[in-house]
Structures are given as structure tokens and as C-alpha cells.
Amino acid sequence: GALRRLALALPQPAAVRSRPGRDWRWRNLLVSFAHSVLAGLWALFSLWHSPELLSDIQDGYSVSGHLLVCFSSGYFIHDTLDIIFNHQSRSSWEYLVHHAMAISAFVSLIITGRFLVAAVLLLLVEVSNIFLTVRMLLKMSNVPSPALYEANRYINLVMYFAFRLAPQAYLTWYFLRYVEVQGQGAFLTANLLLLDAMILMYFSRLLRSDFFPSLRKGSAGRDVDGEKFLID
């Protein structure tokens, strides 16, 4: 709520004000950016402060990690309601699927107290999301600074590998090798594999858009003002 009020108070670029429907997406991305900064730094701090957690992914526990999972669950619930109440469900359906997966998984972790370390590792993705959201904000605002977009383009790629693909790959390997495929373990493993597919799909979109534009298909003339996920 506080992040949303702050986003409403900030001035909007002319490119956003001039296009109907873009104001919601701009405000929503600002809230997403704020969550990414807070959650990403929080996840890094939690692992730096308690590195022993990494040796017990299933049963390791820290108050900081627990509160981080609660905080991010609240954000995902808020963002889901924001999408639905602002009639953006059709254009942001992929985000709704992602949020449903995250909320259900995080609630199970909060209730049982198990696999909280896995959630903290997954939330390292928010470090990557900082630069992914900056990318989308720059595209929306038409900032006349190609150098800024270019710099963020390469930083974004590095962060995608370091904080999205690497933790996801490690957790997928860990769950498939060490976690029993029954009960909560089976549920979380299924969630993880679905998330793997989504992440690889978004990575292919990022590569096509920023590094291999000649491979883009069907995007010409497409209105993406309501889209939350990377498609352009």
C-alpha cells in the first residue's frame, strides 16, 4: 500500500502520460521495482549473515529469511489483486500464473517452516529483476539515452545468469536429487519445474529482443502497454 502511494506521487514521463493505459503499467512497474530492490538486498543479506543456511536447504531456518518470505508473499498477493481489480488479467495472465505458484509455495513454507532456505535462494531472482524492471521502465519512458539502455542491457544479461538461472538450476538439481517426491516435496518440485520452463521462455524472449532482434516474430505493431511480462 505504501509503495503504491509512493508510485502514484512520483511524476510520470511524457511518453507515459500521452498513452492511455500506460499509467497503470508504469505505476505497477515502480512498485515491482521497489519490491525487487528490498527483497533482492534482503535475500543477499540473509545468506551473507547466515551462510550456514546453505548447508541445510530443507530444514535450515532464520528469522530474517522467514520474514522475507512473508514480505514477498504479501507483495505477490497485492500485485495479483492490483492486476485483477484494474482489469489487466487478460494481458498479464502469465504473471497471475506465476504469482499463484509463488503464493501457494511460499504459504506452504511459512506453515511448515521447511524449505525456507530454498525460498530465500529463489528470491535472489529479485536482484536480477531490478535491472529487468529498469529495462522496461526505460523502454516505456523513451529516455533519450541509448548509452544507458545499452549498459543496462549487458548488466541485465549478467544478472539474469547470476541471480536467476544459476540459483534456479542449483535448486532444480538439489530437489531432483535429494528431496523425496511426496507430499510437500512433490508439490514444490512440480512448482520448480514449471518455473524452470517459464524462466527459459522469458530468457529466450530477452535474447531475441535485446540481442537477436531479427529473430523476433509477430511483435510488429503489437500493443504491449498492458503487458507485465517481457514480450517486446
What would you say this structure looks like, in words?
The protein starts with a helix and ends in a 22-residue tail after the last helix. The longest helix is centred in the C-terminal third of the chain and has 33 residues, at 146-178. It is mainly alpha-helical and 232 residues long. It has one domain (20-209). Mean pLDDT is 87; it is low at 219-227. It is 72% helix and 0% strand. It has nine helices and no strands.
Task: Summarize the SSE layout with pairings.
Elements: H1 2-9, H2 14-17, H3 22-49, H4 63-85, H5 93-112, H6 116-122, H7 125-141, H8 146-178, H9 183-210
Helix pairs in contact: 1-3, 3-4, 3-7, 4-5, 4-6, 5-9, 7-8, 8-9
> Which structural class fits the helix and strand makeup?
mainly alpha
Q: How many discrete structural domains?
A: 1
Distance between the termini: 29 Å
Task: Name the beta content range.
Answer: under 5%
Mean pLDDT: 87
Give the overall shape: globular
Report the order of strands and helices.
HHHHHHHHH
* Unreliable spans: 219-227
Care to count the β-strands?
Answer: 0
Helical content band: over 70%
Q: What is the radius of gyration?
A: 18 Å
* Number of DSSP helical runs: 9
Q: The biggest beta sheet, please? A: none
Domain TLC: 21-215
GO biological process, one term: membrane assembly
Keywords: Membrane, Transmembrane, Transmembrane helix
Pfam families: TRAM_LAG1_CLN8
